[in-house]
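Translate sequence into structure tokens.
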Amino acid sequence: MVQEINMVQEINSNQNKVFKQIRSLLNKKYRQKWDQFIIEGERFVDYAVTHHYAIAYICIRQDLMDHFVSVEKLHLYQEVAKVIVLPQNLFSELTDTEHSQGVIGVLALPKPVALETLFSEEVLPQVVFLDRLQDPGNVGTIIRTADACGIEYIVLSKGTVDPYNNKVVRSTAGSILNVKLIEIEDAQMCLNLLKDHGYTLLVTALEAAFVYNDQKAYGAFNCLVIGNEANGVSDQIMSLDSHKITIPIYGKAESLNASVAAGIMMYKINEYCIQNK
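Result follows.
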């Protein structure tokens, strides 16, 4: 069977219907309407292509077309998506990256993952729970670090920044394509359900019963809760039965950045699980 090749389309007006649809994906409302989001960068577009993600469009900046032809990627892109060539002024409307690599992909949003999916796994997976995090860079970095740690599931409570926000996606450095995101409305009900299924809730706090390197702080199956950057973990969650854990601060800083604390804790969870297999 001969693979159908999509034609390359040039768009030169910001009033073009397809261009307006792609640009609208910078807004959460339209990401949800079209069930699509944007990824940017040659490596990440290539990853989506080679791992068979559903790609609607691949947009290439006009002055970089020769590069994609010379590295024999244009033909590959045409096999999986509609390829659109944009002049620099239109391409810049789709990205705020200072040194763009000149290619973006428009991908289908993943199908929603239900919390109950966790309990159908052969072995309960480790989980990260984000409690109303607002900074896109923090959320993206946590997703990237979770992926590096082999933590596949991340739960996002109501009030957490949209994980398909452009800045979040960029901060994940492609890891948005490797994790499963579970968005929930009721944090307390969700965490109680996890506890009922055998999870140990781990909550970072300045005053805590455990220090982060104390092995007694961890269980076989852990749910790490990371709180809002300004206010920390909510009182509602703090009231639940959990292991409160502190990460020592030896200098004059008042606290750690949320993504840094999350990274330390995720690697400690990994270390515990490896040592107790």
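Note: The chain has a mean pLDDT of 94.
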